[in-house]
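Deliverable D4.2, example record:
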Amino acid sequence: MSGNIIRAYAAKEAGGKLERYDFDAGELKNDEVEIKVEYCGICHSDLSMMDNEWGFSHYPLVPGHEVVGEVVRMGDAVRGLSIGQKVGLGWTAESCQHCDPCIGGHANVCSQAVPTIIGGFHQGGFADKVRAQWQWVIPMPEGIDLSKAGPLLCGGITVFQPLLQHHIDATAKVGVIGIGGLGHMALGFFNAWGCEVTAFSSNPEKYDEIRRMGAHHILDSRDSGALAAAQGTLDMIVSTVNVKLDWNTYLGLLKPHGVLHFVGATLEPLDIQAFSLIGGQKTVSGSPTGSPAQLRTMIDFAARKQVEPVVEEFAMSDVNHAMEHLKSGKARYRIVLKNDF
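Output generated by the structure prediction step:
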């Protein structure tokens, strides 16, 4: 078998199950790193891409963009990495490196960035190996649990990035909408950052667990009286959900100059009244994952503060069972595949 053959699990069509798929990745490029996959997290975005929910999937498609593994090959232009080093790879596998965002340290918004799971252009980490441009290959710090680090490289940076984007400091009061795969990591990061953290949840059975994950306060999102009493108390609210909510109510919970920040991909238009923004000079914003520098900052902070996701582990060969577990909504709270090729 050629040294460029990668063994993987791929979706051959929208809505299809994952099947064993071997492909020739071609010669390693000068700026590429080849990673032997040890663990790969499953993100809901993998499911969305498999089902072509966003309209730009290409098949066959190998999902998986929360990779942790070992450097086994490097191109001649690679810098700062070494064979045998433990590394990770998230949503983005390469960017142009010459546009203004790339030069300015914001390569996560490069218009030519290539996602790790874009099918015909790049294949992901549900495989024995994966490749990426070296800038996007993130060194794993000492002391981090490699079996839990994968979800930090997508879900973790997604909720960590708003702290950097909006210059949030430890005096801030922040809220989290949606305590699931993204939201539970947001609670941990915001608490470790030093913030006073409020979770929005209407499920009392989860309240003890939500507090253990980092929330100082819980607001019942269906209790209009509790929401009214909390008006004007938060500096930032991060929404991790993909459903439509009464966004004007949440804007009302913000202090003047507060931010309602979206990382959950709700597909319906946002119904926001102009006066909900104007009166308090409030902001609605959003962000994709993060730049290579932000990813390094996040993973180092996570290791130092011992922020890690709650995970369930499956063998990679059991990937279809794992995907069904995700679809059922029973995942608590992230799923990680262990490579058993």
